[in-house]
Each structure stands twice: as C-alpha cells, then as structure tokens.
Design goal:
single chain, mainly alpha, 7 helices
Length: about 120
C-alpha cells in the first residue's frame, strides 16, 4: 500500500492526520498522491489539475542532480508539471475501473466508509 494511502487510511481510522506529505517538486508520486486525496474528497478533476499545475510556481532547480550533458528539454520535463501528466493518470483510471469508487476500493484500498470519514475530517 503506498504511503499516501496508508496515511489516508490511518487518518480515517484515528482522526489524526499525517504529519507531512512532500517531495522535491510536487509532481510525481507526491503530486499524484495529493491528486488522489483531492479526488477522494470529490474535488473536480479540473480543480485537481489546476492545483497540480501550481507546482510550477515553486520550481526547484534540479540541475545539480543530473549530469551537465542532459539537454534543457529533458531538464524541463524533470522540473515542470504539465496537465497531460495528470490527465494520463485519470485516463488510466477511467480505462481500468467503471467509476472512481471502484478505483478507490480496488487500487489504493479505500472503501466508501474510509472516504466518507476523510471527507468529514478534511472538508470544512
């Protein structure tokens, strides 16, 4: 079970939130994990993508992590987020599951009760 899912399951069970969700640039595992949390909270996919794109406002310069010969176009792909990255994930979910509830139950293992509890705890 991915760390994000474990954190959500624990939060739904105990009411105590995870301490921190972070990564270098917020676009890969952490970005997708946050997108899943927002999806579980019934945030529209349009708003989830808009939130995801905010990662571009706080870019980390990752050049120090890659060899100098790496082209600028490849660095850009490493450092920036694009809507189509997340939309491809949504398309995969839509292709493999009949609806989001089935996805949440089968993939990350969050049942309807856990999702309802997350909504109670996280939505104001």
């Amino acid at each position: 079970m991915p760390a994000t899912t474990r954190g959500c399951s624990r939060y739904a069970r105990t009411g105590r939130p995870p301490a921190l969700i972070h990564c270098t640039s917020g676009k890969d595992r952490a970005g997708f994990g946050i997108a899943l949390i927002l999806m579980a909270l019934a945030v529209s996919r349009e708003d989830i993508v808009a939130d995801y794109l905010l990662s571009n406002l706080a870019l980390c310069d990752l050049r120090f992590m890659v060899p100098k010969r790496v082209p600028e176009s490849a660095l850009s792909a490493l450092m920036k987020v694009r809507a189509d990255y997340l939309e491809a994930s949504f398309a995969a979910i839509d292709t493999h599951w009949p609806n989001e509830q089935c996805f949440f139950e089968q993939a990350p293992g969050l049942n309807e009760t856990a999702i309802r509890r997350l909504r109670e705890l996280m939505l104001v």
